[in-house]
Amino acid sequence: MRILDRYITKSVIKIFTLTILTFCFLYVLIDITSQLDEFIDRKVPIDILIQYYVSYFPIILSQPISSVACLIAVLFTFSNLNASNEVVAMRSSGLTFWQITKPAIVFGLVVSVLIFWVNERLVPQATEVTQQIRNENMVLLVDRMSKKKNKIKNLTFYGLKNRLYFIDTFDPDTSKLKGITIIEHDSERNMKKKIVALKGVWTGIAWKFYQCQITTFNRSDISTPLKIKVYKEKLMDIKESPEDFLKQRLNVNSMNIRQLKDYIDRFSKSGAKKALNNMRVDLHQKIAYPFGVFVIVLIGLPFALMVRSRKGNTFISLGIALILGFLYYVANAVSLAFGKSGLLPPIFSAWITPVLFTIIALVVIETDFSN
Description:
Layout: H1 3-34, H2 36-42, H3 46-61, H4 65-83, H5 86-92, H6 97-137, H7 141-148, E1 152-159, E2 163-171, E3 176-185, E4 191-202, E5 207-218, E6 221-236, H8 242-248, H9 257-267, H10 273-288, H11 292-306, H12 313-340, H13 346-369
Antiparallel strand pairs: 1-2, 2-3, 3-4, 4-5, 5-6
Helix pairs in contact: 1-3, 1-4, 1-6, 3-6, 4-6, 4-11, 4-12, 6-11, 9-10, 10-13, 11-12, 11-13, 12-13
């Protein structure tokens, strides 16, 4: 590595680390302040709070603050180089834009890969651990009971006997289901049975379905049902209780890419198009999201090298970082919303923002630094 590359990389890493630590400190401080009365009422021990926020760190790191911190580090580094005329010296010595910014671009890629790894390996476990700590130590029993009374819409989970459940509405307070679809697979994931019911009621020992239709399929050809039975009401051989329904409901944040893809494969023949579409958008977003760090750094670099005035360089860089980060994540949120509403294909909705901002960055670089 060249001396210049080491010099730039050292500055970027130093500012990035300080920015991340500052953001994490502010996040924890604001979160504690907003819930201070509740923590005091519940008499939450200090060691539990420390354990909670340490466990929560991977979740904080996976949020947009990493992208903004990376962009701030890069912009501050090059604005300081600009202020001391070091960028002018580099350009005068014949170095191109890509040669000057290579350390920052490589750093952006490294952070993107790191965020991808954190999302895959640490965030699912951190989500479960923090939720457990919160339920056991920070949420009163009366609050948990109140939450259970809220109706749950679009409940999905994979249960016993290779059964995939999709419930339009689940009322935990009355243990009633509405709009029931259950897909049962064999050991090789071939659909062998489909159960559809208008509603279901928990009797205390079993589920009773009303207006129920049970279709049995031939594993070699599911297009032609072997048998169809219709019941006005029927007691079902379903071992899951209402409590199991609450515990096993789908949480995308607690699943990595492989688990979510496997879940989608199992759910693909359920006929629940909206739920499937939403999960596919989430799947592609899990892949595309980490590379937002690299894209934001790439689009911020031309602005960093174009800042010439020494006065106010720091504030200009900070302003550019915040504006670019805001625009990127607003555009990404809009495209994801379009994807989940069905206006855009799932893969397109997840990748359109990174690709569009990358093209914009390359156009700006080519226009202003081609010479």
